[in-house]
Fold:
Amino acid sequence: MKQNIYDNPFFFKKYKSLRETGFSFNDFVEQPAIKSIIANLTDKSVLDLGCGTGHFSMYCVENGASKVIGVDISRNMIEQAEMYNKNEKIDYMCVPIEELNLPNQKFDLITSSLVIHYIEDYSHLIKKIRGLLKNDGEFIFSTEHPIVTARKEMNNWFEDNNGNRLHWALDNYQEEGKREEHWWIDGVVKYHRTISTLINTLIDNGLVIEKIIEPESTPTGLEKMPELINEKRRPSSIIIKSRKY
Structure:
């Protein structure tokens, strides 16, 4: 059974409250970086994998996309998307992206925002994504950075006796596979992969790497959330843009 933490009532309530503030990592680090490498959405067909509440799907339509399909495993997320980001050019689907079946459809752009680290079989997913891309189509995704997902039962920040963060510890990096952590609830499962695995799997499936970003906060983000200065000390996400030729 695929993990679906966003339909846990307590988890979803916490996550929804965080995103509604407009003051989050997504708002000031990850989303601005993804949007910066999307050249043109005019008349493009888009597949948004892990669409959440539909904000990025709506962004695509507002910037000229002709059609968007937003996919998410969470019924809570899809209900919010259909309530607040409904548009005649957007179709939302509640299905695990590993089980997505879209026969005879291909897309100019496929995106995935902070979802890949929840996927157990990365290679199978990339093979599926390549099959869903048009020739010259782009796949752009963000995922938790491997220097973050490498951790096991430890807090990566080492602090002094006053709680000041001294440095970020890295261990178990080459040991890929399942990780569990507490994020509002116990037992949140993610999958660690090295940077070379993230990149070489794309290459092995015939995709050409065009851009890699290890994003840091926007200036506005640093004003609103000074703790985002830590993104300068170590990136917590990585964004990869590739293309099918």
The radius of gyration is 18 Å.
